[in-house]
Specification:
Number of strands: 0
Oligomer: single chain
Helix content: 55-70%
Order of helices and strands: HHHH
Number of domains: 2
Structural class: mainly alpha
Distance between the termini: 65 Å
Length: 122
């Protein structure tokens, strides 16, 4: 089965509804653990891919380490890397971004309700 390249798929943020379970009493620790798990997951994928690349290169007689050390990137490659970093950061800070979005929505709803109440009192 062939999957579309990440750049071919539309980016959609999906949020779980309702309150997230909390496992730690210390404020922010659940969010930190979520970030750590994202980092751990990403690191595992990178290590597996690097291992695969090294094995393929070795099978073809290529000194991959030396090639990596002397590699020079063009502008398109630099832009691809930056886009990948930005997507990674969005995933890493997902919980914080979601919390901020929920707080902004709640504040807006609160402000709206308060404004309506103030107008009704006049």
């Amino acid at each position: 089965m062939t999957h579309p390249a990440p750049s071919d798929r539309p980016h959609v943020f999906r949020h779980a509804r309702g309150k997230r379970p909390e496992f730690y009493e210390t404020e922010g620790l659940d969010q930190a653990m979520s970030m750590i798990m994202v980092l751990a997951s990403e690191l595992c994928v990178v290590r597996d891919r690097l291992d695969s690349a090294e094995r393929v290169a070795k099978a073809h007689g290529i000194d991959l380490a030396a090639g990596i050390e002397t590699l020079v990137f063009d502008q398109a490659a630099l832009e691809e890397r930056e886009a990948r970093r930005q997507e990674f950061m969005r995933r890493l800070f997902y919980v914080q971004l979601k919390d901020a979005d929920e707080a902004a929505q709640a504040q807006t709803a609160e402000g709206y309700t308060r404004t309506i109440a103030e107008i009704a009192e006049q």
